[in-house]
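Board work, copied verbatim: Alpha-glucosidase, family GH97
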Amino acid sequence: MKNKKWLIIGWIFFVASLSKACKVPSHTYILKSPDQSIELTLAHTDGILSYSIFQNGQQTLENSALSIFPNTKVKVTDTKITSFSNTWSPVWGQFSKIQDTYNELEVSLDYEGVPATLYIRAYDGGSAFRFMTDKYPIAKKPAFYMEYGLSASDKIYMPAGESMPIGPIVLSDLERMDSIPYRWKVPLVIETDQSKYISLLESDLVSAPGFSVIDFEYDKKKGKLISNNEFTSEGSKLTTPWRLVLIEENIGDLLTNTIPQNVAAPLALEDTSWIKPGKTVWDWRVHGYTAADGFTYGIDTESYLRFIDFAAENGIEYFMIDDAWYTDVSKGQIEMSDKLDLQKVMDYAKEKGVSVLLYYDRRQGDYGDAALFPYYQELGAKGIKYGFMGSNVSFTREAIKKSAESELLIDFHDSPVPFTGVTRTYPNAITREYCHAQQDSRRAFTPQAFIRMALINALQGPLDMNNGVFDITGVNTGEREKGPKAKNLNTTVTAEAARTLIIFSGLVCIPDAPEAYTEKSDLFEFIKEMPIGQWDETKILHAKMDAYISTARRHNASWFIGSVYNEPGGELPIVLDFLEAGKAYDITYYEDTDATHFKTKPEAYQVRRGSVKKGDVINAKIAPGGGHCMWIRPSKK
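↓ predict structure ↓
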């Protein structure tokens, strides 16, 4: 589709609205989404701006204030509405093409002599808000203040770091509390009393220097959620992130809502040929694993050569070397462990066509990232896994940019900044651990925790969750050097395979030993064949909080489908209405068995093959805490 952008005189739109609804006061401005399903009203009353959102005629968010200079009266000096429609292609992602169509209300403002502009966009799946100002006096204290007028009966869920996500919180229950015992982290997911689903988050933080990550608090007096992020930089010019309100009829559709990518800044890199999404094997959780031939994995050259051999044999793009491959750090220099010949490993990987990712732990000291990234590039690394850098927004922004300058992928470890939308601008920001990573925490090892994180944490962007444990029984013995010491990895091997598809990422890190995958090579086929990050289309077929999720992703004419169920287990009907009519397809099923159970028999599975066509219904039978996978491709017969 060709770009098309045209200007519509805002007052013509406004007068037309008045003719249909004469009760709308003159200080109210109306903006509708292209399909008319979303309607925003912006009211200007007594020097205060407030907004409301309706979906299909039902009020979703009631009258809520917003400002860039809180406690300052504002005047509206001009308005105009523009419409925009375009199709663009990300470097990698859940879709090969993304439609960007919206109507935008641009509001020129005067905050007691200080000019500012408010941009409001109405999409078919929600709305976006951003302020900009080119000049303001030092005495003024900017802050992106925004209220969210939810219903008292709405239920809220939110991330909780590496712990089980919090919720459901019913807003009316908060009125009876003396204090609110929550840290309101982004993204929030709200189940409304109208059976709709809302997500509150932000995007394009990378373009908003001076702002921290959005956070929320509940104002009992107003009965509203509030975000009020102060502008911390000095200077007179500012751009806020985009504050987003996503609205969908089905909770799973929040995961495929493209507004966070559409509002992000366009691609900032001229050359992206070096950015390759893919899978990686990883050494950290394998230390102490003894293979059938008696070899025990550790931090040493021989272990790493075995990983590289496995990656090369199975078409796995990367090998990630985690912590302790070095002993000391100075500016632009790292002292290698005497157990490891890194140059030999790098040379061998290059010979085998496998790229190496190297870990860096900032707890070793900040010795200057300007020197760090070029040094990693000189070592031959294709990317860096950055650990323990904290939630520093400006540091993270600069690390993404500097890694791009050295043509390095970057994977942020340990509760990083959720830079939603950044993969459009800097697609080298390949993934981040904004969740509980497999075996990393002892607090969130349940099937329920996974489903919650898949529906909540994943909304902020690609996740590094390290799914794909195949030697579940071995891990639960507690004999791995870097694994849990108690039997608390609650999953099935088929669920582990499904999770590698369900959790979207540009880098899927599989954490088990090569031998564990070789022993179950028929099941590993599902992971091996997946083209990570190169999806043409993504659908969430089923999703229910605390119950199940089923995800389908297409690459060319092939579909990969992964489903998981909470502890009771159950069946999910997978309707193959997305296949092409008149074509025959081969299908491979990777399934739990009748005996499979996440607590008692987690490694029981079966693989079978068949044929399907458009319209067929597959009843995916899933064991308690288990999973189900399908690989569908055009028949070769």
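The first helix runs from residue 10 to 20.
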